[in-house]
């Protein structure tokens, strides 16, 4: 008989999973803060770095995610998460040993495979731990790990990068994750599942079911387009501020890093909190909140790009950081709500598959290629033109979220799985 799920158990699990998500984004994002140093050391272009940071990570992250999620739907979710945390942490440190582009890419692949073992089982665990009316908020708190991780990546990348170089920085941020992996395996319980494992559908059956759910399409492809813009901006923004506004890595960490971290955490929590409350009256707000926030994100980004001075650009980055985070909690909670309990980890992995293949796999590569194409405008102007183009893709995400909200039904008519 498993121990009862208490409020304290929920808080401990949510804290540990959020810590793991935070660490994943430190290890994922810190390469972007160190981009120009790595680029100069190994002789790469912006396009090469976009491929390294985006595609080599995203391809293996996405394709490993589906079989890992299938395992999570029937296996021990805490063990899967602990193995993933240990794997990506060791591979982050191993990047420091690379002297050329190929071994650095191979280590980056290991980071992607390890991180694929986190979110699908984590979403499934949180869904079994929290009642339906609190899941948007729980998922939003978990999503704050993205922005806390980016904040710490900025701070550590700027401070450690200047002090000890990019190689030792990767060692220092990578290895502590092994301790977190042990803590997760020992402290996180495996809560009772809301469905018998024997009813676990085949992948083919799960795909047939998901293809027929219109709201699922909106969640997957809306999130993919939002992340296409978001990943591109987050990865290349440090380099843009350094080139366009003559800032050092330390300057960026001391200003933009804090905005991304605290603005993103506030935006992620606020988006989940607001969706939970508005959806009590009308379930369509589960996706209307992401729709509105995605549109506001584009407007805020245009303001950053058009700002005539460093100070004004930094000020405009505040609403951008808040709005760009608000879609995450509601979208992932909606995915868990609209599928049967036996498919929760699989559904989450498929959303992450589409999101990361398009968003992380293509976004940075397209951004880097456009930056190289517009290089004749100057280092800052060329990258700025590229970021202005890819940042506008969020308008398509907004339209998809709004369209998908119609499938959630009118007030009193939300027929979804708990």
Explain this structure.
This protein is an all-alpha fold and 418 residues long. It has a single domain (7-189, 200-408), classed as MFS general substrate transporter like domains (Growth Hormone, Chain: A), CATH 1.20.1250. The chain contains 17 helices and no strands. The protein has helices at 7-33, 35-42, 46-72, 77-94, 101-115, 119-129, 135-174, 177-187, 203-211, 214-244, 249-278, 285-306, 310-325, 328-338, 344-373, 379-391, 394-405. 57% of the residues are buried. The model has no long low-confidence stretch (mean pLDDT 84).
Task: Provide a quick synopsis of the model.
79% of the residues lie in helices and 0% in strands. It has 418 residues and is mostly helical.
Major sheet details? none
| Helix share bin | over 70%
What fraction strand?
under 5%
List the secondary-structure elements in sequence, H or E: HHHHHHHHHHHHHHHHH
Q: Which residue ranges are poorly predicted, with pLDDT under 50 across at least 5 consecutive positions?
A: none
Query: Going by CATH, what is the homologous superfamily?
Result: MFS general substrate transporter like domains
**Strand pairing plus helix content: what structural class?**
mainly alpha
